[in-house]
Amino acid sequence: MNLKKGVTLLLVGSLGVLWGREIVYGLMERVKDGDTFEMRIHGKDESIRIFGIDTPEKFHSSKFERDVKMCGVGREAMKEAGKEATEFAKRVMEVGKKYKMELMEGTTHGRLIGWIYMPDDKVYNVEAVRQGYAVVYHTYTKKYPEKDRELMKAIKYARSHRTGLWKKYPHIMECMYQHYTLGKRNYKPKEEPKPAPTHSKFKIAMALLSLAVLVGLLFFFLRRN
Question: DSSP per residue over 18-31, as a string?
Fold first, then answer.
């Protein structure tokens, strides 16, 4: 390595420390869920917590149980929402590819915290929110005004356009939005709406009603005879 290149790398590294961040390239090894990836960075396997967002949980944990209770929903509904968030991540973040990532300050539960760029220069953190699979974790984003503005703009769009899980699981997403984005810890969700009857259920009900009428008529004629 020549002197000029060495000095340049040293300056970049120093600025990264001063700014509280480091730009790295990581090889995607596994999408664990919508907000946690496993990547290989500098030859070491690392668990990456996606900065500033939170997706519904799909694994049973203390947070899973807390969110189920907080939102007043069934465990299966929460798990299915979590699975869909994971599937979204798998669609847009391919295993075996390298991704540019800005490492944020600190760690959480032994995991690095990342702001991850997609191949088209979009940011996964923002796209997960904009496409309706995550809410903003404002407790952590408010320290970074520029990133916070991007994320808050994304969630405003997702909530108003009912993208992703906002359409299928609005009860869960609204609850998480109120708690994690707006910080309204005393928010009480309304009773979870019951799904409308499907056409197949309606047809079955009508068939049973018709059968009951026929049986009634048959009984009536038998008694007359």
Answer: HTT-EEEEEEEEEE
